[in-house]
Amino acid sequence: MTTQSAAPAIDEYADTARYQRPWYWYDWANSAFVTTTATVLFGPYLTAIAKEAACPGLADGARCTTDLDVLGLPIDPGSLHPYTVGLSTFVGALLLIFVGAIADRVTRPARLMALFAGIGSVAASLMFFVEGTNWQLGVALLMVASIALGASLVVYDAILVRIAHPDDRDKVSSRGWALGYLGGGLLLAVNFLMLSNEETFGGTGQTVRISMLMAGLWWGLFTLIPVLGMWQMRGVEKPAVAAKAGVVGGTFRQLSDTFRHLLGLRQTLLFLVAYMFFNDGIQTVIGQSSLYGTAELGFSETTMLTLFLMVQFVAFGGALIFGQVARRLGAWRTVLGGIIMWVLVIVAAFFVPEKALAALFALGVGIGLVMGGTQALSRSMYSQLVPRDREAEFFSLYQALERGTSWFGAVIFGVVHQLTDSYRPAILALIVFFVLGGVLLAKVDMRRGIREAGNEVPAVV
Questions:
Q1: What total number of domains does the chain contain?
Q2: Which residues form the signal peptide (predicted)?
């Protein structure tokens, strides 16, 4: 889907293009927490803390039969972490919509991003003090860090529209994602080496706590690069719908107008629904891959961690490759091709023999190549479909949709496993998310959607 558009008489991005280089670094900064803490270490660690609280002195591998008392509700210690993730996802999805409305009304967006990132990095660093049986602190810190991360990403993604010309947006978004995978992979590699020599750092628990502290500090310290680099960047004029209202006072009026506006942008709405499906498939594959590898294919946790490390670095290259392909074919075609690749990856995963190490790592290469590219280009595609001066509001819907619906795939995965007692048909069932997402995305008329949003149509869409 390509079209030529006349170049603007005045390049309105000339004054903001200098912010691209510092902007990239926030992907690098927050990916350390996402990779090391949220994805790899904190889940098993919080579960161990919860089991110690419910069943003191329980032998390794033994099943804890005592529930935790969480606000009067009996909770299985092994379910505490997924329930916490689910609750933070739900609460965050609601709050992010309001964050977007406020973000579009502040004059210095980088400073608001700094506030959210600062809260998140402090919460992530304080996870160092989660030990013994103090699971309550772990739950609270994970929720604060996760919600703050989502809020900072709403502002961060919205800034992309301000600093990159439509013709450059795929490239800029892809470079940010690539840097994020590289940064997250580097810190995880360091943490992996530390865990391989855990006695040096005081044992497994102490090593995990130090690793989580490192991730929190990494997030906070490297956030200084984009914040200082974009400190003077100004936001947009307040939308006319609430121009005379204050930051908080006009938020509800602005949100109401935004939802009415979205209903009128048929192509933007269609893209969001398509993204909901195929992104849910992506998130479920990422989230359940470790379980599939250990429980179904019989690999050790160390092998799966090594695989995850490799995927991070492959995804760095994958994001850059997809960005280059999009410059020639357009992001729309490239993402559709990526969705087809995801289907092939899932089919391949279904047929991977048990204990087949070479096949497992070949599968990891495929996941890494397609993972970074589809996520990066989805962000840049959506940026073309959001109305000018309402970027943060519309990206809050993007983040809320990503987080608020990402449990659908996990539920399907769990239900199919429960019915079949096998993870192979469970992983195969995820194809439906990519098929639905791909079919809906194929119906999106990007050129029409960009014009409906009042934006300039890039040379290649």
A1: 1
A2: none
The CA distance from 428 to 348, in Å, is: 9
Rounded to 5°, the CA angle 156-158-159 comes to 65
Residue 459 resides in a domain: no
Cα distance between residue 62 and residue 79, in whole Å: 16
Distance of CA 157 to the CA centre of its chain: 11
- Structural domain includes residue 308: yes
CATH number of the domain to which 102 belongs: 1.20.1250.20
461 residues of the chain, pLDDT tens digit each = 444 444 443 466 767 788 999 999 999 999 999 998 988 888 888 888 988 888 888 766 677 778 888 888 888 887 787 788 878 877 887 888 888 878 877 888 899 999 999 999 999 999 999 999 999 999 999 999 999 999 999 999 989 988 988 889 999 999 999 999 999 999 999 999 998 899 999 998 999 999 999 999 999 999 999 999 999 887 655 444 444 555 455 556 666 777 788 888 999 999 999 999 999 899 888 877 877 888 789 888 788 888 989 999 999 999 999 999 999 999 999 999 999 999 999 999 999 999 999 999 999 999 999 988 898 999 999 999 998 878 888 888 888 777 766 667 877 887 888 788 888 998 999 999 999 999 999 999 999 999 999 998 988 88
Q: Three-state secondary structure along 392-456?
A: HHHHHHHHHHHHHCCCHHHHHHHHHHHHHCCHHHHHHCCHHHHHHHHHHHHCCCHHHHHHHCCCC
Question: What is the C-alpha end-to-end distance of the chain, expressed in Å?
Answer: 6
228 found inside a domain: yes
Range of the domain at 171: 17-57+66-452
Residue 92 phi, psi (nearest 5):
-60, -40
- Is there a domain that residue 460 lies in? no
